[in-house]
Amino acid sequence: MTGSAVCSSSASPPAGPYSDGVTLRAVVVDNDPDALDLVVTDLRLEGVDIVATAVDGVDAIDTCKAHRPDAVVLDVRMPPGIDGVAVAEVLQRETPDTTIVLYTNHLTDHVLGSARRLGVPVVRKGNLRALRRALTVSSGR
Length: 141
Fold this sequence. Notes:
The protein is globular, with a radius of gyration of 14 Å. Strand 3 (71-74), helix 3 and strand 4 form a beta-alpha-beta unit. The protein has helices at residues 33-45, 57-67, 84-94, 109-118, 128-138, and strands at 25-29, 49-54, 71-74, 99-104, 122-124. The two termini are 23 Å apart. The protein is built from five helices and five strands, in the order βαβαβαβαβα. The protein has 141 residues and is an alpha/beta fold. 33% of the residues are buried. Strands 2-1-3-4-5 form a five-stranded parallel sheet, sandwiched between helices. Helix 2 packs parallel to helix 3 and helix 3 packs parallel to helix 4 (109-118).
């Protein structure tokens, strides 16, 4: 795993690791509601503004176009529609300023090769520390 791999309340989010003084705005995409809730909760506790969530590839694209987040955390396998790799390709064309992090347990040659080609990090699901680091590094925070 070399190359691209990287090991709604009205209250303001707590200060997180984003030292530039600007809150990172993110969209989280996962078809598994438990995984989605875990990532959203963790990132909010770290000071990330979760502007929206999505549960499938088409919704992810529409949501990112509508909200223009700084970053998107993107599951790879979201049946029955398009997968996270295809979503990443569309988002790079249509929202090129959005940082993309693939968050998956499906570390296949296709996923890793596609991530390398796209220049996006891949983080194994469940490794929230690595996910936070990937968001920090990839977004230049």
